[in-house]
Amino acid sequence: MHFLARRRGGAGGRIVAGVRRLLVLVSAVIFVDAMLFGALAPLIPGFADEFDLSKTAAGFLVGAFGAGALLGGIPGGLAALRMGPKRTVVLGLCLLAAASFGFSLAGGAWTLGLARFLQGCSSTITWAGALAWLSVVAPRGRRGEILGTAFGAAVFGAILGPMFGALADLVGIRQGFGAVGACELALAAWAAATPPAPVERQASRALARAARDVRFVGGLWLNTLPALMFGTLGLLAPLALDEGGFSPFAIAAVFLAAGLVEVILNPLLGRFSDRVGRFVPTRLALAASVAVATGLAVSESAAAVSLLVCAAAVAFGGFYTPGMTLVADRAEAVGLTQGLAFGVMNSAWALGNLTGPALGGALAERFGDAIPYLLAGTLCFLTLIAAQRVVRRPAARPAA
Predict the structure, then answer these.
(1) Between 337 and which of 56, 138, 200, 271 could a Cys-Cys bridge form, CB atoms 3.0 to 4.6 Å apart?
(2) Sequence-distant (≥ 6) Cβ neighbours of residue 19 within 8 angstroms
(3) Would you call 319 helix, strand, or coil by DSSP?
(4) Domain ranges of the chain
(5) Is-contact 228 66, C-beta < 8 A?
(6) How far is 347 from 121, CA to CA, in rounded Å?
(7) Count of CB atoms situated within 10 Å of the CB of 181
(8) Nearest to 356 by CA among 87, 45, 65
(9) Which pLDDT score, from 0 to 100, does residue 381 have?
C-alpha cells in the first residue's frame, strides 16, 4: 500500500490515513466473505455422499450462493444509494452472520441450500456497500490499484476457504461456521465505528446511460464470465480430484496453491491496468483462459487437473480487477453512483456463479466434464474477439 504512504502531515495526512484504515476494513470484510464462499469446495464430495446427490443436484447446491447473490445484487446497490455504503455494510454483515449460523445448524440438503442462498444474498449487499465505500474515497488515478488490493484480500479469503472447509469437516460444521458468524458480527461492529463515506449524487437517467455504455456493459461481462468458469471449476474439479483419491485437505491444498499467486497478482494487475488501460490485461487473461479451459477438457489424471486448477486461478481471475475497475470508471463517467454500479456488478457476477455450476453440472452429467470446459473456452474466445472491437471504439463522453 505504498500509494498511501505519502502526504502524512495536516489534513492530507488524515485523509490518507483514513483511506488506509478503510482499505484494511474493506479487505477484512471481503476476506471473510470470500472465505465463507470458498469453504464449500472440499465439502461437496462429503455432502454428495451423505445426501446421495447427483452432479446436477450438487451443482444446484453450489449454485445456491449465486442464486442468492443474483437476488440481492440490485437491492444491495439501492441500499448503498439510499442508506449509504457504511450502513449497507453493517446490514449485510449482520444478515451474513445469521446465514452462517443457519448453515452451521442445517441438517439436510434443502436446509444447506437455503443457508447458502441467504449467504449469497447478504454477501452481495455487503460487497456493494464495501466496494462503493472504497471507490468513493479512493483517488481515481489509483482506483485500480486500491480495488486490486482489496480484491487480492478476497482472493486470499477464497483460497483459504477450502482449507477452512476442510478444517470444519474435521472439527464439525456447527463449530466452524458458528465461529465465522461470530467474526462477521465483530466486523459489523468495526464498520459501525468507522466514519461514513461522502454522499454521492445520482445523475438523471444515469442507469439508462450506463446500460447503453459498451464499456460499462463489458465490465459487467468481465465479472460474469470468470464467475461462470470458476463456478464450473469449483464443482467439477473437487469431484474429479476426489475420484483421483484426494482427501478433503488435499483438495483444499490444491485450491490454496492455486490462489496464492492470484493474491499477489491482483494489486499488480490493478496497477498495470491503471497505466495501460483496462483492456490490455483483459485480453491477455482471455487468451490464457482459452488454453487452460481446453487443457481441463482433455485432462484425465488428477495430477493434471490439480496443476490446471492452479493455472485457471491466474487465467480466469485475470478479468476481475480490470472488469471491476472498468465498472467503477464508467459509472463515474455516466453519473451512476458507485453503490448502484457495484450492485449491478454483483448481479452480473451472481448470474455467472449460478449458471456455471448448475449448467456445468447438468452438462457434465449428460456428456462428460469436457463439454462444460470447452463451452467456457469458447466464450472466452468470443469475448476476446469482442474486446478487440471495443478497444477500437471511442469511449462515451462523461456525463455533466
Answers:
(1) 200
(2) 4, 137, 138, 146
(3) helix
(4) 12-392
(5) no
(6) 10
(7) 18
(8) 65
(9) 92
C-alpha distances in angstroms, 331 versus 106, 216, 246, 266, 399? 40, 7, 44, 21, 10
Residue 213 DSSP class: -
Query: Cα separations (Å) of 109 from 48, 69, 112, 114, 161?
Result: 9, 19, 5, 9, 20
Alpha-carbon Rg for the chain in angstroms: 20
Q: Which three cell numbers mark 191?
A: 464498520
| Cα dihedral 350, 352, 354, 355 in deg (nearest 10) | 160
- pLDDT band at residue 360 under the 50/70/90 scheme: confident
- pLDDT one-digit tens code per residue, 116-164: 898 888 888 888 888 888 877 766 666 666 777 777 777 778 778 877 8
Supply the pTM of this predicted model: 0.67
Say if domain 12-392 classifies as CATH 1.20.1250.20: yes
Interatomic CA distance for residues 330 and 175, integer angstroms: 43
Contacts with 366 (C-beta within 8 Å, 6 or more apart), sequence order = none
pLDDT over threshold 90, residue 94: yes
